[in-house]
Amino acid sequence: MQYLERDAIAPRNHRAWYPEPRGVGRSGGGPHTMAEAIADLEGIRAAVGVGTWIVVGHSWGCDLGVRYAVEHPEAVTAVVGVAGRGPQRDRTWSEAYEKGKAAEPAVEIEWVPAVHAALSDSFTEWIHRPNLWRELAACGVPMHFLAAGDDIRPSWPLAQVAALLPRGRFSTVPDVPHDFWFTHPQVWTSTVTNACTAS
């Protein structure tokens, strides 16, 4: 099951779908690229019959949501990106992440190493594209990035992207860790609901 697929933490007064990546949980397939993941999202949107939707992404899902909005702006009303990494492979970011790993609350999430590795490689290819920043700066989709205040992952990349986007916003949810959907479910629900409602 997709780890956010829980009625208790779903955005209030919004209909929600919870795609599972290929090769994870109930989904067939296996290792795949970001481009294939985006094609899967478009396939789901067409299958459920919605013209546009708000894309809510947590962690990796935030980064995927950004690329999806850039490549399919006509399909995305807004992006709500929570605790993402941002399009970078910065050494100081990685050092801060590695230094804090021992203190991060343990949350069990089903994942498939081969799928993770393939998507990570594809992410690296995407952020190395020469026109990446031009595409981001030209994207008119509203995007609200929410950092978790106690996340071991530095939030400066999200703040930079928010400042670059014509309709970008950045804010911080105080006193919550990366996986606050699990540790602080009421805060998660109110945060995501408010962000979706404001979109």
What is this structure, in a nutshell?
The chain has eight helices and four strands.
Percentage of β-strand residues? 5-15%
The low-pLDDT segments are: none
Find the CATH superfamily. Alpha/Beta hydrolase fold, catalytic domain
Counted up, domains total: 1
Average pLDDT: 94
Number of helices: 8
What gross morphology would you assign?
globular
Radius of gyration: 16 Å
CATH topology: Rossmann fold
N-end to C-end Cα span: 27 Å
Strand order of the largest sheet: 1-2-3-4
The helicity comes to 40-55%
CATH architecture: 3-Layer(aba) Sandwich
Total number of beta strands: 4
Helix/strand order, N-terminal first: HEHEHHHEHEHH
Q: Which secondary-structure class do the elements indicate? A: alpha/beta
CATH structural class: Alpha Beta
Biggest sheet features: 4 strands, parallel
What layout of secondary structure does this protein have?
Blueprint: H1 34-48, E1 53-58, H2 60-71, E2 76-82, H3 91-100, H4 113-127, H5 132-138, E3 143-148, H6 156-164, E4 168-173, H7 180-183, H8 185-198
Parallel strand pairs: 1-2, 2-3, 3-4
Give short descriptive properties of this protein.
199 residues, alpha/beta, Rossmann fold, 8 helices, 4 strands, 43% helix, globular
Q: Your description of this structure?
A:
The chain is α/β, with parallel strands linked by helices and 199 residues long. It has a single domain (31-37, 52-198), classed as Alpha/Beta hydrolase fold, catalytic domain (Rossmann fold), CATH 3.40.50. It has eight helices and four strands. The protein has a four-stranded parallel β-sheet with strand order 1-2-3-4, sandwiched between helices. β3 (143-148), α6 (156-164) and β4 (168-173) form a beta-alpha-beta unit. The mean pLDDT is 94.
